[in-house]
Amino acid sequence: MTFADENRYPPPEHSAPWYEPYAQAPWDEPYAPETRRHGADLAALRSAYRLLRRISTLAALGSFVVYVVLSCGAPGLMGARIAGELSLGMALGVLQLIVTFAAVFWYGRSAQRSVDPLARAVREQAAPANGHTGVAR
């Protein structure tokens, strides 16, 4: 039988917090010029990555939406024969795959040319400041 005031577990040996409660946090430190430069590089990296994502997503998704709208809105047009048994809908379906693969290929090449050099520069600037080598573990 246990009682309400009975403590079943021993008290912790170390009850102090693991951090210094009244010390200044690292994010409260004033900005140094290199920190502002690092922030500008990060902003440029985010902007380049955002633009790259938007263009490739709109290309792949936009072509798919056009295909679906034409399939639903103009079934007669999509069923029209182009050559032999090949219909316009079938040709646009194959073109949809080609556009999607082209968008993925373009994304990879553009990332190597525009985003990767910026990311490398940001990583090299941050490495001496915080001691990390930039290698994921």
Helicity level? 55-70%
Please write the string of helix (H) and strand (E) elements: HHEEH
Sheet having the most strands: 2 strands, antiparallel
Low-confidence stretches: none
Radius of gyration: 29 Å
Q: Which of globular, elongated, flat, extended, rod-shaped describes the shape?
A: elongated
First CA to last CA: what distance?
50 Å
**Counting H and I runs of at least 4 residues, what is the number of helices?**
3
Q: Order of strands side by side in the largest beta sheet?
A: 1-2
- Averaging pLDDT over every residue, what do you get? 77
How would you classify the helix and strand content by structural class? mainly alpha
Q: Could you give the count of β-strands? A: 2
Strand content of the residues, in percent? under 5%
